């Protein structure tokens, strides 16, 4: 049997067995303490189901975007040593310029302001 097929089948079998074992052995005893939105010893002050502000999601998306930029620029020191380093630098400059323009646009539109 092919080694890759053996590894896939064995990992699938192990995953299914452990999942079934978890459902079989888990103790599900819900009580008011477990069903409350907070388990830190304090009574909840408000509803735990209030929606987040859209600003929170905007900042999170911007963080992910610039984190992705770092991941894309990480191999830059090695890419400089290729046959055409000017092409690498040009694409890097385009990427950074595009992201900077997007950030400036968001800033000018007031999307980064928490209070209105």
TrEMBL record:
Stretches that traverse the bilayer: 52-76, 88-108
Pfam families, per database record: Oxidored_q4 (PF00507)
UniProt key word Signal: yes
Any Gene Ontology CC annotation: NADH dehydrogenase complex
Topology of this chain in the membrane: Multi-pass membrane protein
Protein name in the entry: NADH-ubiquinone oxidoreductase chain 3
Role of this protein: Core subunit of the mitochondrial membrane respiratory chain NADH dehydrogenase (Complex I) which catalyzes electron transfer from NADH through the respiratory chain, using ubiquinone as an electron acceptor. Essential for the catalytic activity of complex I.
Keyword Transmembrane part of the UniProt annotation: yes
Taxonomic placement: Eukaryota, Metazoa, Chordata, Craniata, Vertebrata
Annotated GO MF terms: NADH dehydrogenase (ubiquinone) activity
Catalytic reaction list: a ubiquinone + NADH + 5 H(+)(in) = a ubiquinol + NAD(+) + 4 H(+)(out)
């Amino acid at each position: 049997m092919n080694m890759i097929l053996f590894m896939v089948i064995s990992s699938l079998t192990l995953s299914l067995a452990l999942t079934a074992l978890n459902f079989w052995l888990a103790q599900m005893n819900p009580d008011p303490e477990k069903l409350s939105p907070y388990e830190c010893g304090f009574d909840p002050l408000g509803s735990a189901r209030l929606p987040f502000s859209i600003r929170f999601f905007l900042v999170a998306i911007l963080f992910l975007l610039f984190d992705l930029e770092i991941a894309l620029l990480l191999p830059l020191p090695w890419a400089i040593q290729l046959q055409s380093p000017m092409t690498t630098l040009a694409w890097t400059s385009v990427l950074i310029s595009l992201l900077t323009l997007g950030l400036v646009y968001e800033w000018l539109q007031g999307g980064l302001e928490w209070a209105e």
